[in-house]
Design brief:
- This protein has 13 helices and 23 strands.
- It is an alpha/beta fold.
- The chain folds into three domains: 79 residues, Archaeosine Trna-guanine Transglycosylase, Chain: A, domain 4, CATH 2.30.130.110; 123 residues, Ribose 5-phosphate Isomerase B, Chain: A, CATH 3.40.1400; 225 residues.
- A seven-stranded parallel sheet has the order 19-20-18-17-21-22-23, sandwiched between helices. A four-stranded antiparallel sheet has the order 1-2-5-8, with no helix packed on it. Strands 13-12-14-15 form a four-stranded parallel sheet, with helices on both faces.
- The longest helix is centred in the middle third of the chain and has 20 residues.
- The chain is globular and about 75 Å long.
Amino acid sequence: MKLIRIHPADNVAVALEDLAQGEALTVDGQEVTAAQAIQRGHKIALAPISAGAPVMKYGCAIGLAKENIAPGQWVHVHNAGTGLSEGGEYTYCHKTYDLPQVAPRTFRGFRRPDGRAGIRNELWIIPTVGCVNNIAQQLVRENQHLVTGSVEGLYTFPHPFGCSQMGDDHAQTRKLLAALVRHPNAGGVLVLGLGCENLTMDQFKEELGEWDSERVKFLVCQEAKDEIAAGSTLLGQLAEYAASFQREDIPASELVVGMKCGGSDGLSGITANPTVGRFSDRLIALGGSTVLTEVPEMFGAESILFERCADEAVFRKAVKMIEDFKGYFTSHGQVVYENPSPGNKAGGITTLEDKSCGCVQKGGCAQIADVLGYGEAVTKKGLNLLSGPGNDLVSATALTAAGAHLILFTTGRGTPFGAPAPTVKISTNTALFEKKRSWIDFNAGTVAQGESLDSAGDRLLDYVLAVASGERTNAERRGAREISIFKDGVVL
């Protein structure tokens, strides 16, 4: 099979392999001849599309033809463009879909005293200000001897903020870092400050709220004669506490899994993203939770999500999330409908609608239980939407802060980064999986080779439970752990 027509209403098909000019093809019993060479992941017209008429993919309009397009022609940015604008009116039209039946599953995780579960038992150093990044990194280097027994790692997450920020940016930095301190994958946390920054330690403690003094320690470097010695002593205490935790069987219903994509291609919405959607439905059927973010990559596909909001209150929160993000774009003089990156376009994605319709496939067909603001944590079981940008590091950090134990990251072109939470890279095509074995953890390209989405979803559930039980991802093996904090305003 060289072509796939995703929905019966589509007037384009997607190439599963490179097509040669003049090659005769058949899809769904229809014959078409490639008018020119067309790369894998790109679209070919199956029927005449008049100038101004919608280009249909996923059963949705993903843009408008810029000129008349004949059957067999390559359909891309040269002859098709977006149909989006800044406006939009939304109506709640509730729909429900059946979830699969899944036998109860467990993973081997760490039970915390507050009742939550973690899938890693690590020591984290959280800098409250970028000025102490180098001290945090030195503490990590000099205290690796603490990583022993059930203590699985010692990491810090440098960032440039925590000072010279005002208003919402200052609040977002404070909120995001406090959320990381609370993350259950950390068995012990050292909060590291400088002493003169505007994110003071007292202010940070107020943001954090109640904390376990055995699990969380604080150090202000300007107050210590030798901050390395003082930090090492505190880390030793944290390691002793973290070592008291051992893996045990925990129901899969307690897992929270983040979902995002990056470096997408024309197969993302056909193989990897719907595979993640099948996984999401299975985990939710088990009583677990998933989190979908990247709001700008929902533009043009909002209705696919809105119709599954559990009630009108959730629908209103979802609409506000979309409208607020559009306002963020327009307040900076940017249009809302130009998003696909050069890599996306090279991979076959033509418009933001094209990208968005593929992106939301990760959400499966479950009901949307809640909509979260940036820095907010999951409190309701099921599928959650999270306010955040498309940027890989920023959104993956936000997913971690929301409480995601691990993150599923689909990609058609590959990327090596990792979030603080274990980050599973899922390839849309087998060629990428074979080329980047040190980056890619799971191959969904098999769907383009005939594997059913249900089978791929089952495989992914098995793999996620293995990672939750301690199997390390490629990013973890390479020590790829990074954060990026959302910023909008001025820097003093």
